[in-house]
Amino acid sequence: EKGGYDYFMLKEIAEQPKAVADTLLGRIGADGRLRLDEVRIPDAVLREADKIVIIACGTAFHAGLIAKYAIEHWTRIPCEVELASEFRYRDPILGQRTLVIAISQSGETMDTLMALRHAREQGAKVLAVCNTNGSTIPRESDAVLYTHAGPEVAVASTKAFLTQLVACYLLALYLGQVRGTKWGDEIHAVVRELARIADEVERVLETMEPVRALARSLAGKNTVLFLGRHVGYPVALEGALKLKELAYMHAEGFAAGELKHGPIALIEEDLPVVVVVPSPRGRSVLHDKIVSNIQEIRARGARTIVIAEEGDEAVAPYADHLIRIPATPTLLQPLVSTVPLQVFACELATARGNEVDQPRNLAKSVTVE
Ligand code: M6R
Predict the structure, then answer these.
(1) Rounded CA gap, 39 and 72, in Å?
(2) Which of 159, 160, 236, 292 is the most exposed place for a label (fewest CB within 10 A)?
């Protein structure tokens, strides 16, 4: 059932191009317009929503953080992302015009379920983004957009994460379409790129051998830091979470701009620091800033592991290890930049002799609060 792979996680990483393609299937028309009629929330409700609140846990929370960038940029609807476990305890402000998006692979996560019940009690509409047909979270929501990742067995979430991103992009674009906001050239370019993105993920998977070798060489380390900006920041958080749960290593993700506000004090000789570099096209000012960050940490002895777009030559002189990813529109980059981090964590866990599919102390779905 592992299809020739040693671990479910490896199989599920390899299945990501298909999972992404299946989640897109039938949802973009030949005319480039989104077809999400299955989301049975009337367009009027979507048009009138004045706030979006995303609730989720763990990896699904990171998908939500990335979704916020896309939703606010493409729809101009204010969007908050909240850990489901914190949500109902802080008396959140919700109303009839709040659209709550609950993201969950399993559809059974108790923290997320309790948060969505609280949201509905306050009169908000809840839309679930879920991978498990007929599970509790979609059953208790007003509507559901299913991800089509297929069953995810490994505790560490991989293909579900990529499909959560795809579903959130589709939703953000659909909201933009319904509301008539920003439906311009940028959106068309993004829709076209989404149609090709499964192939790009496949290309990344084909180039992972150096990442595996690098991971093995770091098996004796205690700490790895991850830096990113913009949508690369949640990717850094996700890279760190994968490493914690699989390799049992101290791993932390930071927004690169925060370095000088504290974390840079952690940098010491030969400390591995993974940096997710934004595209030099698009928001190029962020790119230039992160290049300076890489120089700063390297000058203090960090071993820099740089994930950057093909053709981005500016980072090369400061990268001890350079991992290339295909060029994508800025907001879609997490679909390709996360993949090396999954492979990295999986290989490090293996090298450290850990149980990859069943990390200690963890369960696949967390059905207690
Ligand atoms: O089933 P869910 O998506 O609701 O699960 C949420 C988290 O428990 C889950 O993503 C967890 O963080 C993963 N083990 C991370 O790899």
Answers:
(1) 20
(2) 292
Name residue 250's beta-bridge partners: 223
Q: How many Cβ atoms from other residues are within 10 Å of residue 288's Cβ?
A: 12
pTM: 0.97
Which numbered atom of ligand 1 lies nearest the CA of 160? Answer: 3
Beta-strand pair 272-276/223-228: parallel
The tokens for 80 are 């908050």
Complex ipTM over 0.85: yes
Tens digits of residue pLDDT in 130-184: 999 999 999 999 999 999 999 999 999 999 999 999 999 999 999 999 988 756 7
Q: Name the residue with the closest Cα to ligand 1, atom 12.
A: 58
Instruction: Tell whether ligand 1 has an atom less than 6 A from the beta carbon of residue 177.
Output: no
d(Cα 197, Cα 357) in Å, to the nearest integer? 27
- Give the integer Cα–Cα distance in Å for 12 and 188: 30
CA-to-CA dists, residue 104 to 127, 129, 144, 198, angstroms = 11, 6, 11, 22
> Which two three-digit tokens encode residue 288?
């230039």
Residue to mutate (ligand 1; options 83, 105, 369; most atoms within 8 A of CB) = 105
* Residue 369 and residue 110 in contact, taking contact as beta carbons nearer than 8 Å: yes
**361 secondary structure, DSSP code:** T
Closest by CA position to 366, among listed 176, 104, 141: 104
Bin 26: left if φ > 0, else alpha if -120 < ψ < 50, else beta: left
Structure tokens that stand for 285 in this block: 């000012």
User: Is residue 156 lining ligand 1, measured as CB closer than 6 Å?
Assistant: yes
Q: What is the distance in A from the centroid of ligand 1 to the CA of 294?
A: 31
269, amino acid identity: E
